[in-house]
Design a protein that fits this description.
about 190 residues, mainly alpha, Arc Repressor Mutant, subunit A
């Protein structure tokens, strides 16, 4: 089917035109989205983005003109732009949840009753956070997700695209490293 024929079918039978798009360009859309999001996002995020791409394609289908470009380039451009937007949104979302690495997040409000104890708590939290960060990736994220956010090993494995057993072993080793680091600092 040519691009002009697709435009004509879009006017007469939108359902058939959309089925053609999904059948013939579905793999292309997935490839583009996975290329942009694959290493940093979950499978669910990728599927959501692909769905958003097709919604945007269907919403803007009337804007397609075969004279100005091919249907493949139209689909590719929308896929790339939507994947980049999704990457930015997900980066902000994950960075907001990972914002504990800021020094001021370790701040504990000082009570007038026991300034010294509150200051000690602040120092301990700051020291702990620096020790967690020194573990490196993915150990620091595993510890952060497990103990700061209370996530299960299964959820962490999904989020980091790792096996459950690997997350469990890394968590155990990371805790041992943390014990050594914290005991050396005292």
């Amino acid at each position: 089917m040519t691009d002009n024929e697709w435009s004509a079918i879009l006017d007469s039978s939108p359902k058939e035109a959309y089925e053609y798009l999904f059948k013939n360009f579905g793999n292309l859309v997935y490839a583009i989205v996975i290329n942009k999001l694959g290493s940093s996002c979950s499978r669910e995020d990728i599927d959501d983005c692909v769905s958003d791409v097709f919604v945007e394609i269907f919403t803007n289908a009337k804007k397609f003109a075969a004279e100005t470009g091919s249907l493949k380039s139209f689909v590719s451009t929308i896929s790339k732009r939507r994947a980049i937007d999704a990457f930015r949104q997900l980066s902000r979302k994950y960075n907001a949840s990972d914002s504990l690495d800021k020094e001021e997040d370790a701040y504990v409000p000082v009570s007038e009753e026991n300034i010294e104890a509150d200051n000690d708590k602040k120092m301990e939290k700051s020291e702990l956070w620096k020790a967690v960060q020194s573990l490196g990736e993915p150990d620091s994220k595993i510890i952060m997700y497990q103990y700061f956010y209370g996530m299960t090993v299964v959820k962490i494995a999904e989020k980091l695209d790792m096996k459950r057993d690997a997350v469990q072993k890394r968590s155990t080793r990371a805790r041992e490293k943390l014990r050594k680091i914290l005991s050396e600092n005292r």
